[in-house]
Amino acid sequence: MGLSWQQGPLAPGAVGRFLVPEPLPARMLFAEPLRRRMRVRFGDTWIADSEDVVLLHEPGRYPVAYFPLGDITTGVLQPGEHTTRHRDLGPTSWYTVRAGTQSKQRAAWQHTDLPDHARDLKERVAFAWRAMDAFYEEDERIVGHAADSYHRIDIRQTRRHLLVRSGDGVVADTTRPLVLYESGFAPRWYVPRDDVEESALTPVEGQTFCPYKGLASYYDIAGARRAAWSYEDAWTEVRRISGLVSFEPDEIEVHLDDVRLSLEPGQSVVSHGADRNLTLDETTAVRQP
């Protein structure tokens, strides 16, 4: 499962609790070896290639990959004057990343005076996701953010009655939804297109990328913005939801077996931003470098 985001065990909105006599600290950071080869591409060249990446799980954020300095191409990191202070990890220096004719300011960072308990991140650098051209695990591109090693998705068929309303109108009515369980999230219900009133969906600009599901497109419904979404060509692992539509219960009425659903707390997370220059063809094709 996702350790530190949405409702994972180290997240601020965790739904479970540790069965220990004393309360845990309000914030707990967790670092571990990724145990996967990870590469970074920038300026049409590979600037980092490592089998020794450390993944940092920080409450309320997606995981961040930290690369050892020795696995980053010499000359890529240009020290800058910009510094910040991480609330748990101390002073942080930011780098300009340069490769070929391309450069990007504040595109990588390093915690320079770590407390002893955080020595796992010593002499390691993280790259800003949106600033890089691409991140890969082996020869497959990872989109959206670094993949959580504990993340899992299960999809189940059900005969439960799902009804979606917008005012007095019915947007969807089905007894054959798929329910998608994604670690840290509340269950998401996906409706076959034949059971959706297509005229109620207004496509909107702007898509998001998920390293587990693929490229998501969004729809407005009446005055409700981005009240529905669909993965038109979901990744192979979750192909069953391709083309189906899911609805956001905090934006529109969603009833399951006559009980109105509401968005559970702890569902938001701090994003690192969408990949720069990621195209539809790249997300739907075989992810090769």
In short:
This protein is an all-beta fold and 289 residues long. 2% of the residues lie in helices and 43% in strands.
Number of helices: 1
Structure classification: mainly beta
| Poorly predicted spans | 273-278, 282-289
> Whole-number radius of gyration?
21 Å
The biggest sheet amounts to: 7 strands, antiparallel
- Following the backbone from N to C, one meets helices and strands in this order, namely EEEEEEEEEEEEEEEEEEEEEEH
Total number of strands: 22
Break the fold down into its secondary structure elements and pairings.
Blueprint lengths: L29 E4 L4 E5 L2 E6 L3 E4 L6 E5 L8 E10 L3 E10 L2 E10 L12 E4 L6 E4 L2 E3 L10 E5 L4 E5 L2 E6 L3 E5 L5 E4 L10 E9 L3 E8 L2 E7 L14 E3 L5 E4 L2 E2 L19 H5 L5
Antiparallel strand pairs: 1-4, 2-3, 2-10, 4-5, 5-9, 6-7, 7-8, 8-9, 10-11, 12-15, 13-14, 13-21, 15-16, 16-20, 17-18, 18-19, 19-20, 21-22
Characteristics:
289 residues, seven-stranded antiparallel beta sheet, mainly beta, 2% helix, 1 helix, disordered C terminus
Describe the structure.
This protein has 1 helix and 22 strands. It has 289 residues and is mostly beta strands. The chain has a 7-stranded antiparallel sheet, with no helix packed on it. A 7-stranded antiparallel sheet has the order 12-15-16-20-19-18-17. A 4-stranded antiparallel sheet has the order 3-2-10-11, with no helix packed on it. The longest helix is centred in the last third of the chain and has 5 residues. It is globular, with a radius of gyration of 21 Å. The two termini are 28 Å apart.
